[in-house]
Structures are given as structure tokens and as C-alpha cells.
Specification:
Elements (H helix, E strand, L loop, with lengths): L3 H19 L12 E9 H7 L7 E9 L6 H6 L17 H11 L3 E7 L3 E9 L24 E5 L3 H13 L3 E5 L2 H11 L3 E7 L7 H11 L5 E5 L4 H9 L4 E4 L4 H13 L3
Parallel strand pairs: 5-6, 5-7, 7-8, 8-9
Antiparallel strand pairs: 1-2, 2-4, 3-4
Helix pairs in contact: 1-4, 6-7
Bound molecules: adenosine-5'-triphosphate and magnesium ion.
Adenosine-5'-triphosphate binds next to α1 and α4.
């Protein structure tokens, strides 16, 4: 049980790294190499040998391996730090693995790296198997009125899982394609990977890892024309006017109703830009 877009993002980041590890960085040519994705199920007693705090009865292990250049010990110690990269300027943001780490930790999973210089690297993600099916509390509403519908792609950033699920469903029912992120760093990463598709970003201001205001600034750097709606509970009036001055399109006061959000989204998307 996990958000498929998050799993997709974690695997994508690992696969892009594997490709880069096989690629000859001096020429940019894809070298001769192998990449392998393997899944297994691990029982708790096996897990506890590696991670003594592992508490679920069963874990799914997804391993992504490459036969690329591998890492030295010093690099290996730093790879999960945000903004750590050994790639040239413009090639890597250093966020890929910190995002993978965040996603796995959010799902109470574990991550393991095995690497050897010149031989390759394996990342193993361990995700607890959920016994009961989670049923998010999504009210059964009819679909949105016609003037609130749209077909654009929206990036939804919210750390509160229930609210994220609720808004995602509301947006999808209104016809939108929805990408999600649960913290500031993965929001930026998701945005930079999909900036050509994303028509609008709806983000909470109080986010883990990097708050909404910083997310907003980074996204402006990536795409100066980005359309962003910021949502928050209490908002300091100074911060609000600063954000508006730097181009935030709208503010939404939390708690909000899905229909209010749908209306604001149409207003921002339909405004002449
Ligand atoms: N499969 C791998 N083989 C060798 N080194 C790796 C591998 N995966 C990650 N690394 C090392 O870890 C560093 C951090 O990886 P991370 O994915 O966080 O950032 P990045 O790939 O440099 O940039 P980004 O993912 O944001 O484009 C990389 O710069 C690289 O040095
Ligand atoms: Mg990467």
C-alpha cells in the first residue's frame, strides 16, 4: 500500500543514477553495462538481522543494481544528504537519493546500499507489507460542476497524508491529472522532472524538509512562469506580501473545501498570463 507516484519517483531516481553510473562521464556515451531490478519478499526474522528495529511481519524488497563505476566509502557516507552530488554543474541537483530516502522513511521502510569501485552498486528498498487495506476517508461527492473541471496536470504538495489523498481524489474527479509530493525536496524534484507538463502547483506552506516558501523560490528558478497557489493555516502578513510580490498567484486559507480549491485553480489557470 503506497502512493504509486511516490514509488515511481523512487524507482526513477534510482534508475537514472544507475544509468549515470554506467555512462562514461568524459564522453557522455552509454557504456556497456547492466541494470537489474529485482523484487523479493523478506520475512521479519531475516529483516531483523539487518535492521533490528524492523517490526512488520513481511517486507517487499526492491533491488536496483547496476554494473557501473561504484562509489568510494567517502561518497557512500554522503549520498543521502540533500544537495550532495558528484555530478558536474547542471547535471545533478543532488536531490535524487534524499528524495528516495524520504519516501521510504515515510512508508516506514528501510534502505541499504552495497557498492564497490569499478564493479557496481545495488540499492535495496525494503517496504513493509500492510496487513489491512487502508481506507482513506474520502467523502462520496458527486463529480465537480462543469465550470470547475479541467484537464491540466497539477502538482499537489501536502505532507498530511489524509488531506493529500482527499485533494488528489477531488482533483482527479474534476478531470485533472495529479502528481503528488509529501515534502519540499521531493516537490522540487518532481517539478524539475515534469515541468513541461505541470500547469499549476498547489502547495502547503508548512512542509517538512524545505518549507513551501523555499519550494516556491526554487520552482521560480526552474521556471520563472510557474503558477503556484499556496495554502496555509495562519500566515504572517509580511511573509504573505513578500510571496505575493515574488509572484505567488493565490493564497488559500486552511482548512479549505475542495470546491474552493477547484475554483481558485480555474481562476489562476484561466487568467491571462
Ligand atoms: N548507482 C550509483 N552508482 C554510483 N554512484 C552513485 C549511484 N547513485 C548515486 N550515486 C552517487 O550519489 C550522488 C548523489 O545521488 P543523488 O541521486 O542524490 O543526486 P544526483 O544523481 O547527483 O543528482 P539528481 O539525482 O538530483 O539529478 C551522485 O552524485 C553519485 O555520486
Ligand atoms: Mg540522482
Amino acid at each position: 500500500m503506497m502512493d504509486p507516484t511516490q514509488l515511481h519517483q523512487a524507482l526513477l531516481n534510482l534508475c537514472v543514477n544507475a544509468r549515470d553510473a554506467i555512462t562514461d562521464s568524459s564522453t557522455g556515451n552509454l557504456g556497456r553495462g547492466e541494470m537489474r531490478i529485482q523484487t523479493t519478499v523478506i520475512r521479519s526474522f531475516e529483516m531483523r538481522k539487518k535492521f533490528s528495529e524492523a517490526s512488520a511481519a513481511e517486507y517487499v524488497c526492491i533491488a536496483v543494481s547496476d554494473s557501473g563505476k561504484g562509489m568510494d566509502e567517502e561518497t557512500k557516507q554522503k549520498i543521502f544528504e540533500p544537495f550532495f552530488t558528484t555530478k558536474e554543474r547542471g547535471k545533478g541537483t543532488g536531490l535524487g537519493l534524499s528524495v528516495v530516502y524520504g519516501i521510504i522513511k515515510d512508508h516506514r521502510g528501510h534502505i541499504e546500499v552495497e557498492t564497490e569501485i569499478g564493479l557496481g552498486t545495488t540499492f535495496r528498498l525494503y517496504l513493509p507489507v500492510t496487513e489491512a487495506l487502508a481506507t482513506p476517508a474520502v467523502p462520496q461527492e458527486e463529480s465537480a460542476p462543469d465550470d470547475l473541471r479541467g484537464k491540466e496536470t497539477i502538482l499537489l504538495v501536502e505532507d498530511e497524508q489524509n488531506l493529500l489523498g482527499l485533494m488528489k481524489t477531488a482533483l482527479e474527479r474534476a478531470g485533472y491529472t495529479v502528481l503528488t509530493a509529501a515534502d519540499g525536496l521531493s516537490a522540487i524534484k518532481m517539478f524539475s522532472l515534469n515541468k513541461d507538463k505541470i500547469a499549476l502547483v498547489l502547495t502547503d506552506l508548512g512542509l517538512p524538509k524545505l518549507d513551501g516558501a523555499a519550494v516556491f523560490t526554487s520552482m521560480k528558478d526552474i521556471d520563472p512562469n510557474v503558477k503556484i497557489i499556496l495554502a496555509s493555516g495562519y500566515l504572517d502578513p509580511n511573509l504573505k506580501s513578500n510571496l505575493l510580490r515574488s509572484g505567488a498567484k493565490e493564497f488559500i486559507q486552511k482548512p479549505y473545501s475542495p470546491n474552493l480549491v477547484l475554483r481558485k485553480i480555474r481562476e489562476v489557470l484561466d487568467a491571462a498570463s
